[in-house]
Amino acid sequence: MHAPSGIGVIDKSVMIMDALEAGPATLAQLVECTGLARPTVHRLASALVHHRFLSRDVRGRYVIGSRLAELAAAAGDDQLVSAAGPILLKLRDVTGESTQIFRRQGDARVCVASAERPIGLRDSIPVGTQLSMKAGSAAQVLLAWEDHERLVEGLRRARFTPTVLAGVRRRGWGESLGEREPGVASVSAPVRGPSGRVIAAVSISGPIERLSRQPGRKFAGVVVAAAHQLTEMVRANPDADHGLKDLDH
Q: Going by DSSP bridges, is the β-strand pair 198-207/184-192 parallel, antiparallel, or unpaired?
């Protein structure tokens, strides 16, 4: 248990989140663990759910929310971007298409690194671009492994369906044809953090006439290989050699 800061509402909120470190808990269990009054726990837990620091599982129990993972991922952005640069360049050279890394930020996905196709028709997505979480293979990948509540919310007005996301989880990659922009296809795969949670998506994108109407069949292997290598670098050794010696195979 942390020493109190003297700011009561923050100290009590931290007590509630600390109590959930061991796993899901009901309101009654939180009251027992924290020693706080039931109305206080209910009020603070509801506010933490509203801001996504907590969530509710399918049994109604409180669990740690996705916002903490987002903030933790944001803290590791420099590491992610540093490792991503050489990987995106190699992936671009292997596929001949523009490559990107996307992270989720609230209701949008943000391009945090990219390598553009140097010549010819290309899908240009500069670093810092915010795109919808309702369309595109990167959005599919960033949503597919979310908890039930966020999955349901993310599918509202989305261009993809629950069946599409089930396919993403089964295969380990997503593809899109004109979902985000007419004439543009893409393939994406998940980057995972040390806990196994999806923290980013590696993507390639370009015109459908080059990627074909089955871009996953053509490019999923190399995109997944790039995502796996970035996952290993982020998890274990961010200062390791960033070469993609296995990507061509």
A: antiparallel
- Token pair of 126 as six digits: 């500069």
Q: CA-CA distances (angstroms) from residue 83 to 13, 57, 87, 156, 242?
A: 35, 34, 7, 34, 7
This prediction has a pTM of: 0.68
In a domain, 243, yes or no: no
Cβ-in-10-Å burial (0-12, 13-18, 19+) of 30 comes to buried
Number of compact structural domains in the chain = 2
C-alpha distances (whole Å) from 207 to each of 38, 109, 111, 158, 176 are 57, 21, 19, 22, 11
Q: Judge if 42 and 124 occupy the same domain.
A: no
pLDDT tens track for 240-249 = 333 444 454 4
Distance between CA atoms of residues 243 and 58, nearest Å: 42
Domain that holds residue 211: 71-235
pLDDT at residue 102 greater than cutoff 90: yes
Same domain? For 107 and 182 the reply is: yes
Give the residue from 64, 85, 111 where a domain finishes. Answer: 64
Output the 3-class SS for 10-32.
HHHHHHHHHHHHHCCECHHHHHH
Would you state the structure tokens that stand for residue 223, as one six-digit string? Answer: 């995109």
Distance CA 146, CA 4 (A): 33
For 197, counting Cβ atoms within 10 Å of its Cβ (0-12 exposed, 13-18 middle, 19+ buried), the class is middle
pLDDT tens digits, 171-215: 999 999 999 999 999 999 999 988 788 999 999 999 999 999 999
CATH code for the domain of 14: 1.10.10.10
Structure tokens at 208: 């459908």
Q: Give the number of C-alpha atoms closer than 13 A to the C-alpha of residue 92, restricted to the C-beta side.
A: 20
